[in-house]
Write a structure and sequence with these properties.
This protein is α+β, with helices and mostly antiparallel strands. It has nine helices and 19 strands.
Length: 463
């Protein structure tokens, strides 16, 4: 009798979990305590490496930033303008640095003999407000990962990194999704692609608004749930080229896709109406950039609903990645981009520890890039480099995501700009926010989430 009742109970629990999805528990209090000792408040290793080439993390640096100019939208400044490279890596000497180079970067150096990496002294400049540290500490023991079919989500995390001590690749990817990037920004950007002949093509010039609801001050769990678990809000208003001027794009991403999917809308001038845009995601060609990339190659490939990949947390390694690239804000576009590849003198590379996450397409699903490797910076949780393989098993796509020190955030801002190379084709640059004239990017007060609605998109459209 007791055995039959036990079997019935287990069967009932199985049904419940099949409906609710599996829930992965957070770390223990003892593990979380490391965030105040051997780990940084966001989960990176506090100590430097034994060689001294990666320094100890010491919090927000005082680099005498011109704060008033930055807050008013003036052009960005380079805190390391006087520094000189400590090494230059090219095709001829890449083998001696191979241990610290991603497979994709090695492929780029091999394909482009005129490309090189200028390696500078490493500065661990990422930091965050104390409230973000406190919330991350709470999240470490309170947050859980929910998986239901092809979708996943976060439960019990607010205002900080959800999994500062990740146990799975999916947790690390959610950290990338919900990394600290400030609260609200306005920027002016251009999206470019190049033909195989080296001609530069403007896909979009726009003003963009990015708002990170996950970091809204004093947000409560009830408010988060009422919002539909909003994580990231995005509004783009197109100014050029002329045939696209007046178009608009709106995206509302979430921190839990087991409840509700990403929602996106587009305003088309010719139709004079706002319509749903469900194909903004995954391997749909990115119309914002003339189809030169896939939508899920933007900003290091953020997770959305209807997940296509299985993720494996491989571990940490030391890699040269683009970092503290503030120099680029002072350059003209022709000083940044060449006919066949970016100007290597425009980029700054540093040695940092990264998490490696391998992604393989789920059984029974499809993607134009069935295998990817993400290299996620341990300090920022940003995907700094991303390699992609085609269905034949050939490495074909190499994405580098530049990071910039923003003292007005504070911390290292990640996601703009990203440069993508297709090894059997050309390259493209998305979210290029350093062109002239005018401001490049500035912090702005958070708006009500209703400012990122289809009605707001319709009202903001001018044609």
């Amino acid at each position: 009798m007791e055995s039959a009742m036990r079997r019935s109970l287990l069967a009932a629990l199985a049904v419940i979990f099949s409906v609710m999805g599996s829930v992965h528990a957070a770390v223990t209090a003892e593990q979380a305590a490391k965030l105040k000792t051997t780990l940084t408040p966001l989960g990176a290793e506090r100590a430097g490496n034994k060689e001294g080439s990666i320094p100890e993390w010491k919090g927000c640096p005082d680099l005498k930033a011109p704060m008033e100019k930055l807050k008013s939208g003036d052009r960005r400044w380079d805190p390391y303008e006087a520094e000189k490279p400590v090494a230059t890596i090219n095709a001829a000497n890449a083998a001696q640095y191979a241990e610290n180079l991603s497979e994709g970067v090695q492929a780029l150096l091999k394909k482009y003999p005129t490309m090189h990496l200028n390696v500078f002294k490493t500065h661990r400049t990422h930091c965050a407000p104390e409230a973000v540290y406190e919330n991350t500490f709470k999240n470490a023991t309170a947050a859980s990962l929910i998986e239901a079919g092809a979708n996943s989500g976060i439960k019990g995390a607010l205002g900080g990194i959800p999994f500062p001590i990740p146990k799975t690749g999916l947790e690390a990817r959610w950290n990338h999704n919900l990394r600290w990037r400030g609260t609200s920004w306005e920027s002016r950007v251009r999206h470019y692609s190049w033909t195989t002949g080296g001609d530069r093509v403007l896909g979009t010039q726009a003003t963009q608004f990015d708002q990170f609801e996950h970091y809204r001050p004093n947000l409560s769990a009830d408010q988060l749930e009422k919002s539909g678990d909003l994580g990231f809000l995005f509004l783009q208003m197109t100014e050029a080229p002329s045939f696209r001027a007046g178009e608009g794009l709106l995206v509302r991403d979430r921190s839990n896709y087991t409840k509700e999917q990403r929602a996106a809308w587009q305003y088309l001038v010719g139709q004079r109406r706002v319509r749903r845009a469900p194909n903004i995601g995954w391997d749909t060609p990115d119309f914002v950039n003339s189809g030169a990339d896939f939508f899920d190659e933007v900003m290091g490939s953020s997770i959305t609903g209807d997940e296509r990949y299985d993720y494996k947390l491989v571990g940490k390694k030391e890699l040269y990645i683009p970092y503290n690239n503030n120099k680029i804000f002072k350059l003209k576009e022709d000083e940044i981009f060449g006919k066949n590849h970016h100007n290597p003198e425009a980029l700054r590379w540093e040695l940092h520890r990264v998490w490696q996450v391998d992604a393989t397409v789920k059984q029974g699903r499809r993607h134009a890039v069935p295998k990817r490797v993400f290299y996620i910076d341990e300090d920022t949780w940003s995907t700094s480099l991303m390699d992609g393989w085609d269905p034949a098993g050939n490495l074909q796509r190499v994405s580098m995501n530049l990071q910039f020190y923003f003292p007005d955030m504070p911390g290292v801002f990640s996601g703009y700009s990203d440069i993508l190379y297709v090894l059997n084709g050309a390259y493209s640059s998305r979210n290029t926010m350093f062109y002239e004239p005018g401001y490049q990017v500035k912090p702005v007060p958070m708006k009500p989430e209703s400012a990122f609605s289809p009605e707001a998109l319709s009202g903001a459209s001018v044609r």
